[in-house]
Amino acid sequence: MSSEASRYAGLAPVAVAAVPRRRWNLWHRVNRVAVYGPLIFLTVLAVVPVIWMLFSSLKSLSEFYTNPWLWPRAWHWENYTRVWMGASFGLYFTNSMIMVTSSVSGMIIIGSLAGYALARYQFVGRDSVLYYFISGQIIPGQVVLIPLFIIVRFLGLLNTRQGLFLIYLAAAMPFVVFMMQGYFKSISREIEEAARMDGASELRIFWQIMFPLARPGIGSLAVFQSLWIWNEFLFALVFANKPHLRTLPIGIVSTIGQYFTDYPAYFAGLSVAMLPSIILYLITAKYMLRSTITGAVKG
Amino acid sequence: MASVTYEHVSKRFGDVVAVNDLSIQVADKEFLVFVGPSGCGKTTSLRLLAGLEELSEGNIYIGDRLVNDVAPKDRDIAMVFQSYALYPHMSVYDNMAFGLKLRKTPKAEIDRRVKESAGILGIESLLDRKPKQLSGGQRQRVAVGRAIVRHPAVFLFDEPLSNLDAKLRVQTRAELSKLHKRLGTTFIYVTHDQVEAMTMATRIAVMNNGLLQQVDTPQILYDKPGNLFVAGFIGSPSMNFFDATIVESDGKLLVDGGSFRVEVPDKKKGTLLPHKGKEVVFGIRPEDIHAKPYVPPGILEADVQAKVDVTELMGNEIFVYALTGNKSFIARVDPRCRARAGEQIELAFNMDNMHAFDQKTEIAIV
């Protein structure tokens, strides 16, 4: 045994090193399949319906029924013009845009101010205020729909943009305030103190220093809330259901008839409705992925 | 330019006393360094002066002006933070100009001052960059630039070198000292690094547990520490302490450390005689312990036998971790000394530089 060991002593390190490497390679491959397999499956699950929707939007009505799964044999781009010109699609689109920009701007301005105050200032009842906001997140919108309807009608804001704006603002505030206060808390207090020593007022510290620093958080919140409002159905249906106030989700659904539905046009409408979400994501993705705080403090 | 006075200043955070009855006068153009371990109250003292914390008790004056209720921006001070605290979305130029813009300084004057300060610090070429495009050392310079551009009466530094690597720290230390001389302004500096304090300060204020232990020039703090804490904190490696008794034998006054007996020099006898028979803490710095036969001439040596535990070769000297009895201590000895771990070594204490402290009060006797 000992002579055996000494004979191969010089080779031993090579042999010992080779076995674990093979094992590692196998384990590495299994690992990659385990990680990427589910990811690819989920990506397919998300992408296939979108592609199917785009294909369907470019088919003729008869082809939609005869060739529902494959790509179109003839590309009917006119479905898009038909949708945009008819069925008040432009109006719904504009209404949705107005609701998204106004509500999200309001949410970000009010939510970030409130979040900043909760994150940075000591005042009596601060924790209670924060818990009050957090508790708002556990109440689903459907539960408060009837009392909300009564209040909005009482205020004379039923079927007005202002009414829907206020509802979106109130519904989003718990989440926005909670997220913003967390975000402001994560920003170094020394930056704020440096600004204070430089002579900045509290309001200037907020607008010129803290708010720009919170851009990654604000960006992701804005995208998140924009997507929610862009797709929001229930509140828009209940509180703004006059034809001239309809938003896209309500408008698209209203094209579905009891006896006849122009599905290619319907899917063209959905494709157009999806476009701003994608553009918004592409514009703001860098804010969500990259932090501008890099370099502010030590490191 | 202004003096700074802390007058019986205290700061409490709930039940915790961060600063306890601090009284200190910082002269105009002085470079005062607050030094002490973490949580000793040094940063709080600086933040109280900056106006970033409210006083619990006492008064702070900048020049003759009581500033207790004056907003930070109106105190005519500028601060360099530990994390630099640069505005990451602004260029270096805008970072430096921000304070001046808020003070409605004319544009041409802002430009002149920013460029002048950038010139002093050697960062002219970085003015268009964002903080994230700078190295740690460059960021540190910008943070200093942002302070000096305002020409304040007092500069405050909160551990500004602690994020730099060792080499850059040494270099920046010298640059800050030069800057102090060049600007001729009062500098108040906080650090936990006693080497930084020793090398830069006009005077050092040593703090521990919220209390000011001693404030004096670096040399006096080193030569005549006021108490056991200061003696242990100033100097690297720190002073060796031995529980000992002062005894008299054959007309000589001796320090009896159990495993060694060393004679008290004549010039210190008078002060130690009243402590005869009492227990004291005997202190000797590592640099005052020499290996035989490499003892410098002209010192009053007292021989001590010890066993070498560990040696660390530093190139120009050797750190010997030795044991006498069961007590461990450090000696900085001549590199020619061939001591090895486990061997006996003959050492000589330089008794001219001995220290003794009261065991109960920990206050220095000699």
Topology:
The complex is a heterodimer of chains A (299) and B (366).
Chain A: H1 2-7, H2 12-57, H3 61-66, H4 78-85, H5 89-120, H6 126-136, H7 145-154, H8 161-185, H9 189-198, H10 202-213, H11 215-231, H12 234-239, H13 248-254, H14 263-289
Chain B: E1 4-13, E2 16-26, E3 31-35, H1 42-50, E4 57-62, E5 65-66, E6 77-80, H2 92-102, H3 107-121, H4 136-148, E7 154-158, H5 166-183, E8 186-191, H6 194-200, E9 203-208, E10 211-216, H7 218-223, H8 228-233, E11 240-249, E12 252-256, E13 261-263, H9 266-272, E14 279-284, E15 289-291, E16 301-313, E17 318-324, E18 327-333, E19 344-350, E20 355-358
Q: How would you describe this protein?
A:
The complex is a heterodimer of chains A (299) and B (366). Chain A is mainly α. Chain A folds into two domains: 3-57; 78-298, MetI-like fold, CATH 1.10.3720. In chain A, 75% of the residues lie in helices and 0% in strands. In chain A, helix 2 (12-57) crosses helix 14 and helix 6 (126-136) crosses helix 8. The radius of gyration of chain A is 28 Å and the shape is globular. The N and C termini of chain A lie far apart (56 Å). Mean pLDDT of chain A is 83; it is low at 1-15 and 291-296. With 366 residues, chain B is of the alpha+beta class. Chain B has helices spanning 42-50, 92-102, 107-121, 136-148, 166-183, 194-200, 218-223, 228-233, 266-272; strands at residues 4-13, 16-26, 31-35, 57-62, 65-66, 77-80, 154-158, 186-191, 203-208, 211-216, 240-249, 252-256, 261-263, 279-284, 289-291, 301-313, 318-324, 327-333, 344-350, 355-358. A six-stranded mixed beta sheet of chain B has the order 6-7-8-3-9-10, sandwiched between helices. In chain B, strands 13-12-11-14-20 form a five-stranded antiparallel beta sheet. In chain B, helix 2 packs parallel to helix 4. The longest helix of chain B is centred in the middle third of the chain and has 18 residues, at 166-183. The two termini of chain B are 38 Å apart.
